[in-house]
Specification:
Blueprint: H1 2-37, E1 43-44, E2 47-49, H2 56-67, E3 72-78, H3 87-97, E4 101-102, E5 105-106, E6 110-116, E7 121-126, H4 131-134, E8 137-138, E9 141-142, H5 143-157, H6 161-180, H7 201-258, H8 270-279, H9 284-313, H10 319-384, H11 393-396, H12 398-412, H13 418-461, H14 469-489, H15 492-511
Parallel strand pairs: 2-3, 3-6
Antiparallel strand pairs: 1-2, 4-5, 6-7, 8-9
């Protein structure tokens, strides 16, 4: 009995080991396949980016401070990546791609920031030589955690991808330099020795009591003084960090303001000036709307610049003031971004206007072809539905013909009114396409009515009388004819309602 039990246990242990090895192999194969399926972009200095959202020059400049300290920086930004079993595996795969890791072990001096936008994954990876620095305790975890949560992730969330990598490199370089080159400490003052000549037991007792009192003071006051010292050190570090964040917010806002061309007079702005030349004679109302928005944005931008100047001139002493100033730089940056986005929209609108002006003759020809096609559709409807009211093509398409004539006059005008011609031809084509769509929706309704008539004829041939069906079908035909009259009159909205009523009448007649 004992030997059989042992053999059974041995077999179970071998099966368990085999199962564990198989599971581990499957996991490793999946991980290797995931790494193999990821496509990594080429390096530009220390930057690998396949999204086009990084300023490689700025990130490489920020990486110089790390390289001067003997660190090997790496910045990787990819749009998406195959799912990895962990952030560590994702970061090591990127490092291995650029020969900074081998066999799952990264270069001792590596400091890498790896981000995947599609997977919303951000990783800070570092080698063994940087572990004493990066694993220093901070209020929210380690120093690496602080860099990712304070500099990397907030900038990524705000869309400032270059700032995310540059700020992370700059902060890491500062901390590594501070760790490797700590500030010198003052040498302790030599102890003062007073030689007194005590004689007698009383003097020795006085010395003993003095020592006891001194030790008591050290026991009670020492921890208090040490806590005060630690608090002062932590406050200094926090203040230094906040000052750096304040400087960064000020510099970012200053760069954005410097690169913005938004003069008070819109006619001095190049994108607006081009639009004004194109629109002032042909689309004055659109130009007036653009001018109004320009002045509104300029007013908000002026208020933001006044706030920016006030923040720069105000001294910030305590932590509360510094935090408030950092927060106030955010609306300044938002207004500058809004003004820049408005100028980009003006540039896009200018391209669109230029394209419309060039396309005016082609749009006019397209309107002519659309009117001809609509005329043919109306005639086919009249031929296919002889007892349905037939809309007269000339009356039905009169609004489109009028717009087409207006477009042709604008093309023949001196000077040429290309935009007005484009607008008129577009309106003609749009109206004509609506007529064709209405005809196409009226034809199936009439065809269904014809089918119901055929069914009625078939039923009567089999002996059914169905006296009420004729009146129901006549009512449906009148409803469809009313829809055709509304189409001829140009009442498209009323046509849709009348067509629905006619279709419902046909359905009711079919049920009868």
């Amino acid at each position: 009995m004992y030997s059989l039990y042992n053999r059974s246990n041995g077999k179970c242990r071998r099966v368990a080991r085999l199962t564990v090895l198989l599971l581990l192999s499957a996991w490793l194969l999946c991980w290797v396949a995931a790494v193999a399926q990821t496509t990594w972009p080429p390096l530009n200095g220390v930057v690998a980016d396949d999204t086009g959202r990084l300023n490689a020059s700025q990130v490489n400049n920020a990486a110089n401070s790390l390289q001067q300290l003997g660190v090997k920086p790496l910045a990787v930004l990819v749009q998406s990546s195959t799912s990895f079993p962990s952030d560590d595996a994702f970061g090591k795969a990127a490092a291995a791609q650029y020969n900074l890791a081998s066999g799952g072990v990264v270069d001792p001096n590596l400091f890498a920031v790896v981000v995947s936008l599609g997977n919303r994954r951000s990783v800070i990876l570092y080698g063994d030589a940087l572990k004493p620095v990066m694993r220093q305790a901070r209020s929210n975890g380690t120093l690496a955690d602080q860099i990712r949560m304070t500099y990397l992730d907030p900038n990524l969330a705000a869309g400032d991808f270059t700032g995310a990598f540059s700020d992370s490199f700059t902060r890491a370089a500062h901390e590594i330099d501070l760790y490797k080159n700590p500030p010198p400490t003052a040498a302790p003052a030599p102890p003062v020795v007073n030689n007194f000549d005590f004689s007698g037991l009383g003097k020795y007792l006085l010395w003993g009591w003095g020592i006891i009192i001194l030790l008591g003071l050290l026991v009670f006051l020492g921890p208090v003084l040490w806590r005060q010292f630690r608090r002062s050190q932590e406050e200094a570090v926090r203040r230094r960090t906040l000052q750096e964040q304040l400087t960064q917010a000020r510099n970012v806002a200053a760069d954005m303001i410097t690169n913005l061309d938004f003069p008070p007079d819109p006619h001095d702005q190049i994108q607006y000036k081009f639009l004004a030349l194109a629109l002032e004679n042909e689309r004055p109302q659109q130009l007036a709307q653009i001018t109004t928005v320009y002045h509104q944005i300029y007013q908000r931008l002026s208020d933001a610049l006044a706030l920016f100047n006030s923040l720069n001139q105000t001294p910030h002493t305590d932590e509360a003031n510094i935090n408030a100033a950092i927060a106030q730089y955010q609306p300044v940056q938002s207004e500058v971004k809004a003004a820049d986005a408005f100028l980009r929209r003006l540039a896009d609108l200018g391209k669109s206007v230029e394209g419309q002006a060039s396309a005016a003759p082609g749009e006019t020809d397209a309107a002519k072809k659309a009117i001809a096609a609509a005329t043919d559709a109306l005639r086919r409807l009249a031929a296919a539905a002889p007892d349905l009211y037939a809309p007269e093509p000339a009356r039905t398409l009169q609004p489109a013909s009028a717009k087409l004539a207006e477009a042709e006059r604008d093309l023949a005008a001196k000077p040429l009114l290309s935009l007005r011609a484009y607008d008129a031809a577009s309106a003609a084509r749009s109206y004509t396409e609506g007529v064709v769509a209405s005809v196409n929706s009226l034809s199936p309704a009439y065809n269904f009515l014809a089918q119901q008539r055929a069914k009625l004829t078939s039923a009567r041939s089999r002996g059914f009388k169905l006296p009420e069906s004729d009146q129901a079908l006549a009512t449906a035909l009148n409803a469809l004819s009313d829809a055709a009259r509304q189409l001829e009159a140009g009442n498209i909205a009323v046509f849709a309602n009348a067509l629905k009523q006619g279709s419902d009448a046909v359905q009711q007649a079919g049920r009868r």
